[in-house]
């Protein structure tokens, strides 16, 4: 697939390994340091979604999405991402991702609004007994000078592999995109229960925040992890 991820906000918290590890499928281990692993909530605008060489459809190809993810190591020691959930505002996209890759997509009523340097993301899951939702307001500032970005900034925003389980087998999918242009960001309002719906305890403290105008991506074919 070809995709463009726009108006991305990265919100990250530290979690103890014992809170995250039991939620991972066999073969994956938390990518931890000092007994802690990062969990990220990423709201953004999905755009230009299409197969290669096929034009996108305006309504179907553009919609808000929010994912909840953590950072893992595969059986070969390679780094990647595991998704606890992915909320999307287009039912066809939800169905296709669940059927094709068994990704934990949820159909949600969602909105993304920008007023100057402030972006507001909202979402509420539809037709789920437990439900889940969020409201996030973020003010975006100037771009980080490259010299000020540290290892953790790159680590949390530059991952090129995701893991999922299809038919009982661990599968990896590679993702290609240019480096993010990261901006400073400030959370003005944050209410969410996506972490609770995933089986995680409530996060402690303020998140580490990054913002970006976005990148264009290519999503590869799934491969069984041996």
From TrEMBL:
Task: Name the source's superkingdom.
Answer: Bacteria
* Pfam families for this protein: DUF2071
Query: Under what name is this protein listed?
Result: DUF2071 domain-containing protein
What stretch or stretches form a coiled coil here?
none
Residue intervals passing through the bilayer: none
InterPro entries, sorted: ADC_dom_sf, DUF2071
Q: Which organism is it from?
A: Actinoplanes sandaracinus
């Amino acid at each position: 697939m070809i995709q463009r991820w726009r108006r991305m906000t990265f919100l990250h918290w530290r979690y103890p390994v014992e809170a995250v590890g039991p939620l991972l499928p066999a073969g994956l281990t938390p990518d931890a340091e000092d007994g802690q692993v990062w969990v990220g909530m990423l709201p953004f605008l999905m755009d230009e979604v299409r197969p290669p060489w096929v034009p996108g459809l305006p309504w179907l190809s553009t919609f808000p999405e929010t994912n909840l993810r953590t950072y893992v190591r595969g059986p070969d020691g390679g780094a990647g991402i595991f998704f606890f959930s992915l909320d999307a505002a287009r039912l066809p996209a939800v169905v296709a991702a669940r059927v094709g890759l068994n990704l934990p997509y949820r159909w949600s009523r969602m909105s993304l609004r920008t007023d100057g340097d402030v972006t507001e993301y909202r979402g509420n899951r539809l037709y789920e007994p437990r439900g889940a939702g969020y409201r996030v307001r973020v003010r975006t500032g100037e771009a980080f000078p490259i010299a000020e970005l540290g290892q953790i900034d790159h680590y949390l925003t530059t991952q090129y592999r995701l893991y999922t389980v299809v038919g009982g087998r661990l599968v990896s999918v590679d993702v290609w995109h240019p480096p993010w242009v990261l901006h400073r960001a400030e959370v003005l309002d944050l209410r969410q229960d996506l972490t609770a719906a995933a089986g995680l305890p409530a996060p402690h403290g303020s998140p580490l925040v990054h913002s970006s105008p976005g990148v264009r991506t290519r999503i590869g074919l799934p491969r069984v992890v041996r």
